[in-house]
Amino acid sequence: MKRSLFGIFTVVVFGVSSFAADYELDKSHSSVGFSIKHLMISNVKGKFKNFDGNFSVDDKSGRLTKLEGAVEVASIDTDIQKRDDHLRSGDFFDAAKHPKMTFAMGKFTPTKSGKGKISGNLTIRGTTKPVVFDAEVSKAVEDMYGNKKIGVAMSAKINRKDFGLNWNKAMEAGGFVVGDEVSISVELEGTAK
């Protein structure tokens, strides 16, 4: 009886994981971007140039089994140097003290074919909070060189003040210079290891 239970345990634990494929990030076809309200009337968009990560996908179900990534906050780019320098400063990301922003998936919950919710922990400026991303996982394809590829698209909205990015200025007519809600958009393409 003990042997048969051990056998079932082995199949369940190791059998399931044997179907998962690990993917290394293809940075040339991936992006980490954001947008935030400016003066309550328009959206300022930006991106981070330096980031890394990896993920695993179950070959049978197409579900994410692991996803983690890190962004170098000093690589922020909104196309205006003065604004980028301000965002790197202690008023916002404090890149000198907190050089990286990280995300680690805890759970993937499928909602319909290829789509689902990614729950995990996002760390910005030394503060970690749970965040849920809407996600879409593509089917695996083979590129022209015979490499197996998968794409993951993620989006979420966070309140920047939850992570200690509190700087703002009130406007005379009412409202503030910078909005609190940040829309995050992540496009990942991975190559099977």
Q: Secondary-structure map with pairings?
A:
Layout: H1 2-17, E1 20-25, E2 31-38, E3 42-48, E4 51-58, E5 64-72, E6 76-77, H2 81-88, E7 100-112, E8 115-124, E9 127-137, E10 141-142, E11 148-159, E12 178-192
Antiparallel strand pairs: 1-4, 1-12, 2-3, 2-12, 3-6, 4-5, 5-7, 7-8, 8-9, 9-11, 10-11, 11-12
Characterise the protein shown here.
By secondary structure, the chain is mainly β. Strands 1-4-5-7-8-9-11-12 form an eight-stranded antiparallel β-barrel. It has two helices and twelve strands, in the order αββββββαββββββ. 20% of the residues are buried. The model is unreliable at 1-18 (pLDDT under 50). The longest helix has 16 residues, at 2-17.
Short account of what is shown:
The chain is mostly beta strands and about 190 residues long. The chain has helices at about 1-15, 80-90; strands at about 20-25, 30-40, 40-50, 50-60, 65-70, 75, 100-110, 115-125, 125-135, 140, 150-160, 180-190.
What is the arithmetic mean of pLDDT? Answer: 84
Number of helices: 2
- Which blocks of ≥5 consecutive residues have pLDDT under 50? 1-18
Q: What is the helical fraction, as a range of percent?
A: 10-25%
- How would the global form be characterised? elongated
Work out the number of β strands: 12
Distance between the first and last residues' Cα: 38 Å
Across the major sheet, the strand order is: 1-4-5-7-8-9-11-12
The biggest beta sheet reads: 8 strands, antiparallel, barrel
What percentage of amino acids are in beta strands? over 45%
User: Topology as H/E string?
Assistant: HEEEEEEHEEEEEE
Class computed from helices, strands and strand pairing: mainly beta
Gyration radius, to the nearest Å?
20 Å
